Amino acid sequence: MATRQGGKVSPSTSDDRVQRNLKTRHVTMIALGGCIGTGLFMTSGSTIAKAGPGGALVAYAAMGLMVYFLMTSLGELATHLPTSGSFAAYNARYVDPALGFAMGWNYWLNWAITVAVDISTAALLIQYWLPHTPGWIWSLLVLVVIFLINALTVSTFGETEFWLSLIKVVTVIVFLVIGLAMICGIMFRPAVGLGNFTYKDAPFVGGFPAILNVFLIAGFSFQGTELIGVTAGESENPGKAVPKAINDVFWRILLFYILSIFVIAALIPYTSPNLLSSAEGDIAMSPFTLVFQRAGLASAASVMNAIILTSVLSSANSGVYASTRMLYALAKDHYAPAFFGHTTRHGIPMASLVATLVVSLATFAASIFGQRIYMWLVAASGLTGFIVWIGIALSHYRFRRAWVVQGHRVEELRYHAKLFPLGPILALILCIIVIGGQNIEAFVNWNWQEIGVTYISVPLVLALYLGYKIRHHTRIVPLETMDLSGDPESP
Q1: What is the mean pLDDT of residues 132-144?
Q2: What are the Cα distances from residue 182, in Å, to 93, 176, 178?
Q3: For the segment 369-386, what is each residue's pLDDT rounded down to a tens digit?
Q4: What three-state secondary structure class fits 96?
Q5: Is-above-0.90 flag for pTM?
Q6: SS3 state at 4
Q7: Cα–Cα distance measured from residue 322 to residue 464, given in angstroms and rounded to the nearest whole number
Q8: Residues 6+ apart with CB under 8 A from 463
């Protein structure tokens, strides 16, 4: 596989490279499972409570459309040049090397911190059944298991994610079948119908401000879709796997979210305090739990706790994989010490894996011994997903312009993004709106601490970008001289 050095492609040696052993079904299920998590199982109910059933549906549909454009943009880039560096490599090559440096390090730090949050959450979920056991033991045990999965082979990671994702997918399908049956009165009588969609102020509650608020929540629910780009570097056939993951999976994800919110809104009125309680982590108040209980499943809370635990484990597992591969790619691009680019004979960048888990462990320790430090660390990773999406939109827009400027035809590309240039421009604008609207109240009240906690990831990326740019005197890559060569080994 080819790697980049300072924006140029150079051949890898026979050693120290990752291996393309992820099957198409792995990539497809990783993409599907990446979006189905606690955002759907827990916080989807709160969106209905805040904006009403109509407002929640509009917000998720709009955000889903934006993410679809982003995924097609990433798909065009990833099929042309599949690399573990993904969007960070594209930022460096098609925009500015300093941007690739900033995005890569910020993404690595984001996932390393998020893994610490996930293992803490996993411990709380396990304590649901074993309340008298110390949580830190379970967190460390989860971290060890995830290390072993990622330390073996990439196919071990892929297979684990396949089955964890399948559990979530089956759960959502069963939920939808039972929920629709209750609405129509097919299996459960009397039929619930759609009365809750016109109950009191429904379907739209709180007007446009409420929809915007839910729009932000919906954005976080779709975080992780960019992992498709990272897996492209280890896919057996990225030219086939990536487009399939985008075209087949995204609409299913969108369908799952839209239909799930439709079912929840029909069965539970937006005024129910249970919907807000679920967002606070109360498994018993999860809309999925409530619906299963109404259908007669007595152990619904325990079942949903187990399913949400698999979601958290999947998130942590994917997070370790993504951050490890990003640090590996940074080393290959000379943005990180070279030893992070070394791999085992099975293609695992072990030094990068260990470094990632050390940061995760340090962050976890901070959650126990230094709550204030932990709060700022978690805040530093809060907006990373949206910032990454901005980078993807920029990279794709400039790549496609350079492609035409240098005399190529769009038909030469293996995969074509939809509605260019509208897609990346729309995604860029909406991401900026979402980032700016994260905490408007803090600006209205000039609460500097709140502003800092909410937006710290923005100055962090700017500091990395400007620091590298000033030190290395990088410039925006001209369209006429941009390196548009693809991966010679890509099928």
Answers
A1: 92
A2: 53, 10, 6
A3: 777 777 777 777 778 888
A4: coil
A5: no
A6: strand
A7: 20
A8: none
